[in-house]
Amino acid sequence: MSIAITSHVVDISPAIRERIESRFDKLNRRQIVLINPHVVIQKEGLNYLVEAKAGVPNDTLFAQAEHEDLYAAINELGQKLERQLGRYADKPLAQRANVAQPVAEEDE
User: Fold this and answer.
1) What is each CA distance from 81 to 8, 20, 21, in whole angstroms?
2) Burial 50-86 (b: 16+ CB within 10 A, else e)
3) Number of other residues whose CB lies within 10 A of the CB of residue 2
4) What whole-number distance in Å separates Cα of residue 81 and Cα of residue 87?
5) What letter would DSSP give residue 30?
6) Sign of the dihedral through C-alpha 81, 82, 84, 85
7) What pLDDT was estimated at residue 92?
8) Could you tell me how far CA 89 lies from the centroid of its own chain?
9) pTM
10) DSSP secondary structure letter of residue 2
């Protein structure tokens, strides 16, 4: 999977690229195709702001994380994407449970 990583203030080192790719590899365990994943790394004050956007069939996942340490921000971002992907994967099961059951008519 090719992940687009952009940053204007931080040089994307091989270690940063590998950390991001490993977090996205964990997302692939769900067997859901991620369409055009894109990660943006910014620096705001002393904190790093990491944003990720990835398409899934009929929906889009978006998450952002902010932390003093870039690697901690990447890990937090990965956890948020994992939770979103879990909700997306379990959504059909939840909708099936909410389908109205036919009401039994009472005999008079």
Assistant:
1) 23, 12, 13
2) bbbbbebeeeebebebbbeebeebbbbbbebbbebbe
3) 7
4) 10
5) G
6) positive
7) 72
8) 12
9) 0.79
10) -
Helix (H) and strand (E) counts for the chain? 2, 4
d(CA 45, CA 86): 32
pLDDT in tens, 45-56: 999 999 999 998
CA distance 64 to 51: 4
CA trace torsion 26, 32, 33, 39 (10° rounding):
-40
Helix residue ranges, H only, 56-97: 70-97
Contact 75, 54 (CB under 8 A): no
Residue 57 in contact with residue 39, Cβ under 8 Å?
Answer: no
